[in-house]
Write a structure and sequence with these properties.
heterodimer, A: 102 residues, 4 helices, B: 155 residues, four-stranded antiparallel β-sheet, 13% strand, globular
Chain lengths: 102, 155
C-alpha cells in the first residue's frame, strides 16, 4: 500500500468483539482486505469509513493491519452480507475477498 | 488542484492552467481495470457458492454508468468557471465520492497494465512500453490525493 498517513489512536477492538453474541458469530464468512502496493493509505481508510461507517481510528487500524500484515479481516458476516461488503469494497477497487471462517 | 472553500455543502476547487484538460484526459481513460479481474473469493468452493457472475455484471454495469457520468461531469458548464488564470470547479460531497472511485479505477487499472510493479521497483520507471500507464497512474493518484486532502480539511 502506498504511504500517505500514520494514525495516532488505536480503537478498542477487543471490547467490541466480546460484545458480539454467539448467534451473531455463526455461520460465518470473513471479509478480508489484502495489501497491494498501489492503493493509497488515506484512500483505504476513507473507503473503510464509507463502506462500514467506522470512526477514523478503527478504519486506520485496519488500514495499517493491511499495510503491515498483508491483510486484515474487516468483518465476519453471513454469506449474503459478506458478498455485499466485498462488492462494495471492489467498487472502490480495493483488493477484497470473502473466505469461510473455519 | 486545491480546495478554496466549502460553500453551502459544496466544495470549490481551484484548478491551475491545464489541470482541467488533464482531468479530462485522465477521466477519458475510464474504465481501466480489466473486466472480471476481481474474484469474490480465493477459494473456488466459495466462489462457486456465490454469485460471482452477478458481481461481475454489477461491476460492468456500474462502469458503463460511470463512463456516461464522467462525460456529463466534464461537460457540465455550471461546474467549471473559467477565470483568467485558473478554473473553479464545484462538487457536491457525493460527486467527490464518485470521482474518487473513478480515479482509483484508473490508478489501480493503470498499475495492472504497467505490470503490477512493486513500490520503488524498476517497473515504476517509465519505459517505452509502460510510460502511458505509469503516467495515467500518477495523474490519477495526484487528483485522488487532492480530493482526499480536501475531505480531511472539511470544516
Amino acid at each position: 500500500m502506498a504511504n500517505t498517513a500514520i494514525p495516532e489512536v488505536m480503537p478498542d477492538l477487543e471490547r467490541e468483539e466480546k460484545s458480539k453474541s454467539q448467534s451473531e458469530r455463526e455461520p460465518g464468512y470473513l471479509v478480508i482486505c489484502w495489501d497491494d502496493p498501489v492503493n493509497l493509505m488515506d484512500y483505504v481508510t476513507h473507503v473503510f469509513r464509507t463502506v462500514f461507517g467506522w470512526q477514523k481510528p478503527k478504519a486506520e487500524f485496519h488500514m495499517l493491519q493491511v499495510h503491515k500484515q498483508g491483510k486484515s479481516v474487516l468483518t465476519r458476516e453471513s454469506l449474503e452480507k459478506a458478498e455485499h461488503y466485498v462488492h462494495q469494497l471492489q467498487k472502490y477497487s480495493l483488493h477484497a475477498t470473502m473466505e469461510r471462517d473455519e | 488542484m486545491r480546495l478554496l472553500r466549502v460553500e453551502n455543502g459544496h466544495y470549490i476547487f481551484r484548478l491551475g492552467k491545464g489541470e482541467r484538460e488533464l482531468l479530462a484526459v485522465v477521466l477519458g481513460l475510464y474504465p481501466v481495470i480489466p473486466p472480471a479481474h476481481q474474484p469474490i473469493s480465493k477459494s473456488t468452493a466459495i466462489a462457486n457458492k456465490t454469485n460471482q457472475h452477478l458481481l461481475d455484471e454489477a461491476l460492468a454495469e456500474q462502469r458503463s454508468e460511470n463512463k456516461k457520468l464522467a462525460a456529463s461531469f466534464l461537460a457540465d458548464a455550471r461546474r467549471f468557471q473559467e477565470t483568467e488564470s485558473s478554473t473553479r470547479m464545484t462538487m457536491a460531497p457525493a460527486e467527490i465520492e464518485w470521482l474518487l472511485q473513478v480515479l482509483n479505477d484508473i490508478h489501480v487499472g493503470s498499475w495492472i497494465l504497467a505490470g503490477e510493479p512493486d513500490e520503488d521497483s524498476p517497473g515504476l520507471i517509465p519505459s517505452e512500453k509502460n510510460a502511458r500507464h505509469i503516467g495515467a497512474m500518477e495523474l490519477a493518484r495526484w487528483f485522488q490525493l487532492d480530493l482526499l486532502a480536501a475531505l480531511n480539511q472539511k470544516p
